[in-house]
Design goal:
Structural class: alpha+beta
Helix content: 25-40%
CATH topology: Aldehyde Oxidoreductase, domain 3
Number of domains: 1
Radius of gyration: 15 Å
CATH class: Alpha Beta
Order of helices and strands: EHEEEHEEEHEE
Number of strands: 9
CATH superfamily: Molybdopterin biosynthesis MoaE subunit
Mean pLDDT: 93
Length: about 140
C-alpha cells in the first residue's frame, strides 16, 4: 500500500507537479487535484500571511491514516497529501491533495474526503496575520 501513498509536511515550497507525477498511472483515466492557496482576505479583514504549525510526527500518522482510509473507501489507485508548515504569503500553497482513479467520480470523492478529514483531524494549526494583529483560526483537532 505504501507505494500508493505519498505524505509530506515541509517548510519548502509545495510542488503540484511532484504530486501529479506521483499519482499518475496508465490504468487511471482521472486525476483530481485540490490545491489550497493563501487568500488575501477573511472575515472582512486583509490577510498579510498565514503561519502553519504542526505536531509533525502525529500529523504524518494522521495523514497516512486518511490516505489509507481513502484507498479502502474509494476505488482509487494512488493518493498524495502534502502540507506546508511555516509562514506563507498570499498566493502560496499550504496544501495539495492529488488522487488518481480509473474513473473520475472516485478521484473527486476521495480528494474531497481527504481534504475535509485533514482539516478535522490532523494537528496542523493556522495563524492568520492581519495589518492590525493576528489570530489562531482553528483549535487543536
Amino acid at each position: 500500500m505504501f507505494n500508493k501513498i505519498a505524505i509530506n509536511i515541509t517548510s519548502e515550497k509545495l510542488n503540484i507537479q511532484e504530486c501529479y507525477d506521483f499519482v499518475q498511472d496508465p490504468s487511471c483515466g482521472g486525476i483530481a487535484l485540490f490545491v489550497g492557496t493563501v487568500r488575501n482576505a477573511t472575515k472582512n479583514k486583509d490577510v498579510i500571511l498565514l503561519d502553519f504549525e504542526t505536531y509533525k510526527p502525529m500529523a504524518i500518522k494522521e495523514m497516512q491514516k486518511i490516505a489509507e482510509q481513502a484507498i479502502h473507501k474509494f476505488p482509487i489507485k494512488k493518493i498524495a497529501i502534502y502540507h506546508a508548515e511555516g509562514k506563507l504569503k498570499i498566493g502560496e500553497i499550504p496544501v495539495i491533495i492529488a488522487v488518481s482513479s480509473p474513473h473520475r467520480d472516485a478521484a473527486f470523492d476521495a480528494c474531497r474526503f481527504a481534504i475535509d478529514t485533514l482539516k478535522e483531524t490532523v494537528p496542523i494549526w493556522k495563524k492568520e496575520h492581519f495589518t492590525d494583529g493576528e489570530v489562531w483560526v482553528n483549535a487543536h483537532p
